[in-house]
Each structure stands twice: as structure tokens, then as C-alpha cells.
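Fold this sequence, please.
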Amino acid sequence: MITKENNSSLPGRLGDPNSSLRVDERADPRLVNALAPFGLDIHPAKASVDGNSSATDCINWASEAELNYASVFKTIFTDLTPISSVESSEEIIIGMDGNEIKIYIHRPTNVKGKIPCLVHMHGGGMVILKAKDPNYERWRQEIAARGLLVIGVEFRNAGGALGCHPFPAGLNDCASATRWAFKNRDKLRASSIVVSGESGGGNLCLATALKANRENWINEISGVYAQCPYISGLYADPPLNLPSLKENDDYFISNATSAALAKAYDPLGENSMNPLAWPYHAVKEDMVGLPPHVISVNELDPLRDEGLNYFRKLLSSGVQAHGRTVHGTCHAGDCLFPKELPDIYSTTVNDIYGFCKFLK
């Protein structure tokens, strides 16, 4: 039993409501130093929106948040050595809704023949940021340099510069890109198709697989690699069975802003239990028959436990799945700091490569 006398032994903000990444002894000191110039090693100023705000206010706030995050990522990803072993191109495809979708294709120049294809869906809570942003472009190139064909999807967002297109617009675009990759696999010289993404992209890759399973085209997807997936939608009123939402709240991301993004994604709340919007709510019938998955989470992420719970659901549904926790890191911390955390960054890139090659 947790009492006032013994709860101080609990991790993070469960034990100390004032805890932050700066003082949490679990945090990698290099991560803390990397976040400090942006004031992200401590609790941020209270956001102007939360789960009780109107959808309009949440969408307006998202535009400002997009600019702030994009500025941080641009700073972090400057002055990196160019990757010369990858050729990149762009293509416009037509999605299932009749809209144009830009995709970014990256292929290693030193690998011949057929290779696994990774369809990547970027983060941003399905609401903000772009596949063209420097952090995501670099991520795709790093993975391609290891020996994979990588496709980035510029899907419609629910807010920001590419909005406002609420659920299921972004999911439909990701599904369309995945199906395009499978249909064109001979031209692409792709041996298999794996879907992947982090945060909101983690949601979208999991939801793409669930959608494919529901619509009977799951044979087109060989595997799923989801990082720090944003999948519960339960941020306005965190449940007790997801203690990391309290334990790590305001560690780089907050429940309040996660709830605001959720409101922008599904303004009327009509899809709060729909697994295609929030994969956490999938049941066994949704999951049986899915291909192998990797669910990778970050120890100091509010979203950690929803990812781990999804991993356990996969196992109980008979799906081959591997769970992975990146210790000492915040939300998406293993794919944001190539200079400050090069070993962690490279390890995750290599793990994605190894998973795709295993499925070949």
C-alpha cells in the first residue's frame, strides 16, 4: 500500500511532485544537458490549453507549438556531417481520399538488389510538424544508410501548416503510402514493407496495421516498429493503470498538451475508443493476425506505459512482439540527439535495421 510515508520511494513525480528531468537521477546527464538550452530540462510554463479547451483553441495553439518545436529541432540538427551514401527523391502519389500526398524516398547507393522498405510516419501527435523537417529527414537518411529503402510520408495533419484535417485524414494518407509501396515494390526493388514511426507516428503505424487487418490487406505489411507511441488519448484524465502519465508528466511533454493535441485530432471526441484513432483501445479481435511488432518506449516518457500495455496486448493476442525500453531518455529521446547521445541514437537506428532484415 502506498502511503504518505512511503511514496517518496516511488519514481519521478509519483514520489516527488516537484521532480523534473534536471533532478531525476534516472536521466542520462547528456540528455539533461542537451535539453537545458531550450529550458526543457525543467517543467515548462503552463500551457494555455488542455483537455478542457475548445477544439478551436487547441488547433490555434498547435500552430504556435509547431513553430516552437520546429525551431528546437532545427537547432539540434544543424552542423551534422552530410550522409553521402544515400540518394533521395520526391514523388507525388494519390491517396484513397483523392488527395495528393508527397513522399520522400531514400535509397542507399552502396546496396544492390532488393532490400527491405521502411515506410516512416513522423511524430507530432498527428497534428503538427512535417516529414520534411530536418530531424525526420536525417532520421530517414540514417536508416537508409544502414541498408534500407526508406519512404517518408507527408500526411495531412489535424493542425499547423498542413492542417486542419482531423482523423482519419492522416491515417488514410499513411495507409495509402503503405499500399503504394507494396504495389510498386518491384519498381522500388523492395523485398518487404515495414511501417514505423515515433510518437504520433507510432500511433499512425500501429493504426495502419490495424486498418489493414480490418480491411484484409495485412499481407502487404511484413512488420511494425513503433517508437514511444502516443496511443491512449487518455491524457485529460490519466487512469491509474498508466502510472507513467503521472510519474513523468512535464518531462519534455505534458499531459495537458497531449490532451490538447488529442482534441485537435478528434474535435468532437467521437473516436475516443476507436482503435484506428487510438490503438491502445484495440482488443484481441483487432490484433489477431497482425505481423511481428517491436514496441520501443522511453523510460522517462509519460507515454511509456501505454506502449508497454499495447505490447502485452499483442502477446496475449498471439502476435510475435518484442518490447524495448530505452533507459535514461525522455519521450523520443533516442531519435532526437545524434550529437549529444550518438550511441543511443545509433543503437535505435541499428535495431530498426536489424528488425527489418530479420523479416526479409
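Residues 1-5 have pLDDT under 50 and may be disordered. The first helix runs from residue 12 to 15.
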